[in-house]
Design a protein that fits this description.
Blueprint lengths: L21 E4 L3 H10 L4 E2 L5 E3 L12 E4 L15 E3 L1 H15 L3 E9 L7 E7 L2 H10 L5 H4 L6 E6 L6 H4 L6 E5 L4 E5 L5 H18 L3 E9 L5 E6 L5 H5 L5 E4 L2 E4 L4 E4 L3 E5 L9 H6 L5 E3 L21 E5 L11 E3 L1 E8 L9 E4 L1 H10 L1 E4 L11 E4 L12 H15 L2 E6 L2 E2 L7 E2 L2 H12 L11 E3 L6 E3 L7 H4 L1 H5 L2 H19 L8 H4 L9
Helix pairs in contact: 1-3, 9-10
Amino acid sequence: MENSGSPTKSISLEHYGIKHANVNYQLSPERLHDIAIETGQGVEASSGALAVNTGEFTGRSPKDRFIVKDDITEDKIWWGDVNIPFDSKKFDKLYNKVTDYLGGKSLFVRDCYACADDHYRLNIRVINEYPWSNQFVYNMFLRPKEEELDHFSPEWTVINAPGFMADAQEDGTRQHNFAILNFSRKLALIGGTGYTGEIKKGIFSALNFILPVFKETLPMHCSANVGKEGDTAIFFGLSGTGKTTLSTDANRSLIGDDEHGWTKENTIFNFEGGCYAKVINLSRANEPEIYDAIKKGAILENVVLDKEGHVDFGNTSITQNTRVSYPIYHIENIQMPSIGKNPKNIFFLTADAFGVIPPISKLTPSQAAYHFISGYTAKVAGTEAGVVEPQPSFSACFGAPFMPLHPAKYAEMLSNKMIEAGVNVWLVNTGWTGGPYGIGKRMELKYTRAMINAVLNEDLGLYNYDDYHIHSVFGVAQPRSCPGVPTSVLSPRATWNDDDAYYRTAFKLTNAFRENFKKFEAHCSEEIRRGGPQRYAF
């Protein structure tokens, strides 16, 4: 057994039902990097990062994510298309098949934990079939000190077997891949897919149940950073809206880029120990911190390299969802430990491909709850098969695939915390301006950064008529001026130069908001329902 991370400890996997395995426990990322290359599972890019191909799946598969329905979950989970129930007996049989498959193999095991605040820490053991998957775990989860490993007791276990293919008819899965959470056995079982995001999102989903149900803590799919005065900013947003980019700021310390908890003590803590960023069209000019984090120890997924090992970040021939994972210490300006206090501003990021939502607007508490439950962004042509024009896309709480409870539960917790902490909430459109996708153009990053900075520097004035204009369709308050941003850019209608086309498109989007919200109305107060657009299309 090779053991370069904890020389005084060895472990057996027999009690998991995995027999005669060659256990590689707590290997260093350098050794895992080398094994991946030696075994032909990856190549080294010119930056020193490991480049791998995740195989058939280059993203998550939401329809193949299940939760075991049992005494713990039956009455609490919001069952449906997002949280698909799985029979406990079928889980036990599938678990035995996976552990039999892993028996006799060379496996990679890592003890780690989630939640930077020790009061909420969740100890985890991850058992990986592939070395680069284990290196991903090193990058993305929090790393115990060596002396902690001698007495480390995992509360949750992740078993990750990309090479195991389920038999859907026999095993109860939809197809050969699966990601299943079992809260009674405290297990995440993943098979048939090499996409590493399933590992981190499995634990994220578990925490999205554990923290609100048992710990009075709001879990959030968001990034967060902290200013020099100790003020914390939170950024919610779906993939492609700029969550990682905007929170990685040379003038503020990064807490984390994706998953956080907001405690009853009013602190914000990172779940993770690393970052998992999209790298499509990445450049040092626009995102220097992320670009420079891609070095030895980082893992590039599904990118295209030239003969010299240089990455073509614009090449999406494998997938649009090209990624990099790296430990958070690859970013120079980070908050250590990954905890923030005094949350003052929350940003809801949306990439509105219709080009009608203001580039920045201030929300009332009821509007914030409504937009949080809605979780709006838009799909553009080419991102998915069959998408030929902009389509509204809603993901409750900006992370529906990872939320086991009804979205209204998270929204209620957020509203209460906003009021208690006196937090300002802002809706930021990082999408299109001057018209919809295909006619307008993407909002310039320098303008979005200027708007974010104006909020953080308290330059946007008070919530009053002199400083803000109430949008006639969406009802949100858009500032009349902002340092570093042309006044014309702040009004989406003005950028169109066609009032009739603008309003018709805006009403089309508000109708989509209302249609999406119907499934939540029965669980929401009248105050939250009134937080949405109140004008109807003509």
